[in-house]
Amino acid sequence: MLKDNHNPIANVPNPSIKKGTIKDKLLVFLEDTLYKFQEHFKGKVIDSEENLNEQLGKTLSYFSKSQAFIFQAETKQKQPKGIDRRVDIGVFRHFSDPTPFFTIEAKRLTTSMPSNREKEYVLGSDPTKFSGGIERFKHNVHGVNLDHSAIIGYIQNEDGKYWHYTINNWIQELIDGKMKSPLNWFSSDLLFNTCNFQDLRLVKSISESEKTNQTKISLNHYFVDLCK
Question: Does a structural domain hold residue 86?
């Protein structure tokens, strides 16, 4: 597990956090910690997604020792049929919880991606493999039965403003039917910027996607600029 279980106060539900507010506490912690991650790992502009996820996992675990949640890498997402999927990071309230209350997927944001992977933040080139970030949440193979989760974009060239508009252009093409997808795409899938691009080290946006089971999930998007 990512969590340091030797900390005597780790993995213990915090009575000061009222039921229903732990997600808000997590989002505050996540934003603060992503700034620390950006400061420490800036310059990692050719690192793989796997290596960056490993560093992110260790960073989240290190700074969460006194928090009321646990981060677990490669968390299994049980599927009703077929092979179970794994999301990059699952967040749990307690070590005994069978399922996460929040999930985090991460993708590289770089124009040097092969053409068949350049839009993976949104969707993959093969609709049967569900390799895209937003796509996986819409198919309910990530964030299974959850109504909140997050996607982190590791910016390895350009900046957060560029990627915000580029990703929204891809989503708009899906909405307009200019790109093929078996999913239904709506204006709510578009990323709504919540930080006015005031600090390009971490660009924050939100969106809401309809899943294939007709439920909805709110996604918090964080673009971490590793070029700065």
Answer: yes
